[in-house]
């Protein structure tokens, strides 16, 4: 693997040399590929266009990130920003690369979670859009445009992850391919309209099974904190190490989202039926609400409290998008019409 990793560092060095003048674009691209973007951006916008597509996006995003976490625990992938120092292969020939605020993630690197979640979630979006365009126009060329956007999106997110030293190229490719496969499979198996018990057991099942798997690996003598220690050791700025980038945070995020999805469908089983103009208003209100939800400051000590509140924070997201804001807009627009 040393040869593969070395070539990956050389590719990252070349990308930084050629693309550094556009670094802000690549930093935005890497944030667009973050699983948080699937929950806070892609889900709300798609939900108010097509309820089923929005629910599918949420379901696929949660399951694909959970599976990515399990794969990372199994594959023990290195990350470029710490491998450069740990490998000791560059003592006399230090690569001309730099880190960024989004570089220092604490989990293992393989496969890329950004690429995997992006591949899964955006497959749901573009396949739905492609089918819609073909049903309206019967044009193969026009309906193929979303898929071209999909390939471009994966390439941009993948390059951004290599550019900031968060992943090696082979990890990005593995994440993208796995995400595509998951998107195709999971998009046809969406538990829309299932009872709350199903979502509760799914959420707790993923949480407990991941924790049991984690405990089992520790019993086998595998130190699953190795990546966090290396991230803290080699990150150029200590403040770039964030608790919400840890594997357990990802687990809490996914399980919270699934429970929140179940609660939202329990409170309002088929959602609010709104015309297009109120839906646009919902998007505006939801964007403002989720902006503040995302920025909620959580205490980092004790860590158990942080993880509990992080779980609750993401359980709130579907309530805001599917129940609270549409209900408020429905109430306001109905009153206006009656007046």
TrEMBL record:
Keywords: Endoplasmic reticulum, Gluconeogenesis, Hydrolase, Membrane, Transmembrane, Transmembrane helix. It comes from the Eukaryota. Gene3D superfamilies: Phosphatidic acid phosphatase type 2/haloperoxidase. Its main location: endoplasmic reticulum. Pathway: Carbohydrate biosynthesis; gluconeogenesis. GO terms for molecular function: glucose-6-phosphatase activity. The active site is at 114 (proton donor), 167 (nucleophile). Substrate binds at residues 79, 161. One of its GO terms (biological process) is glucose 6-phosphate metabolic process. Its EC number is 3.1.3.9. It is found in: Endoplasmic reticulum membrane. Residues 53-187 form the Phosphatidic acid phosphatase type 2/haloperoxidase domain. Pfam families: PAP2. The chain crosses the membrane at residues 25-49, 56-76, 115-135, 147-166, 172-190, 197-217, 276-293, 305-329. One of its GO terms (cellular component) is endoplasmic reticulum membrane. It is a multi-pass membrane protein. Belongs to the glucose-6-phosphatase family. PANTHER family: GLUCOSE-6-PHOSPHATASE, GLUCOSE-6-PHOSPHATASE 3. This is Glucose-6-phosphatase.
């Amino acid at each position: 693997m040393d040869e593969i990793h070395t070539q990956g560092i050389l590719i990252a060095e070349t990308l930084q040399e050629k693309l550094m003048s556009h670094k802000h674009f690549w930093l935005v691209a890497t944030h667009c590929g973050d699983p948080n973007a699937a929950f806070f951006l892609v889900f709300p916008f798609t939900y108010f266009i097509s309820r089923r597509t929005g629910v599918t996006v949420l379901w696929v995003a949660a399951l694909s990130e959970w599976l990515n976490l399990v794969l990372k625990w199994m594959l023990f992938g290195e990350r470029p920003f710490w491998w450069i120092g740990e490998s000791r292969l560059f003592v006399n020939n230090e690569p001309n690369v730099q880190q960024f605020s989004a570089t220092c993630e604490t989990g293992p690197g393989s496969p890329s979670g950004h690429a995997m979640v992006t591949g899964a979630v955006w497959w749901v979006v573009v396949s739905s859009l492609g089918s819609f365009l073909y049903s309206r126009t019967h044009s193969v060329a026009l309906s193929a445009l979303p898929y071209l956007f999909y390939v471009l999106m994966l390439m941009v997110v993948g390059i951004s992850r290599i550019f900031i030293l968060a992943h090696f190229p082979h990890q990005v490719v593995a994440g993208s391919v796995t995400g595509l496969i998951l998107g195709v499979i999971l998009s046809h198996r969406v538990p829309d309209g299932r009872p709350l018990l199903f979502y509760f057991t799914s959420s707790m099942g993923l949480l407990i099974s991941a924790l049991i798997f984690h405990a089992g690996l520790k019993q086998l003598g595998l130190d699953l904190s190795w990546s966090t220690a290396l991230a803290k050791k080699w990150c150029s700025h200590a403040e770039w190490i964030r608790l919400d980038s840890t594997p357990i945070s990802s687990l809490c995020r996914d399980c919270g989202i699934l429970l929140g999805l179940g609660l939202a469908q329990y409170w309002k089983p088929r959602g609010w039926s709104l015309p297009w103009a109120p839906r646009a208003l919902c998007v505006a209100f939801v964007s403002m609400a989720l902006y503040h939800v995302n920025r909620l400051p959580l205490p980092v000590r004790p860590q158990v409290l942080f993880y509990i509140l992080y779980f609750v924070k993401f359980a709130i997201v579907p309530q805001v998008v599917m129940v609270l804001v549409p209900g408020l807009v429905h109430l306001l627009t109905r009153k206006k019409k009656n007046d």
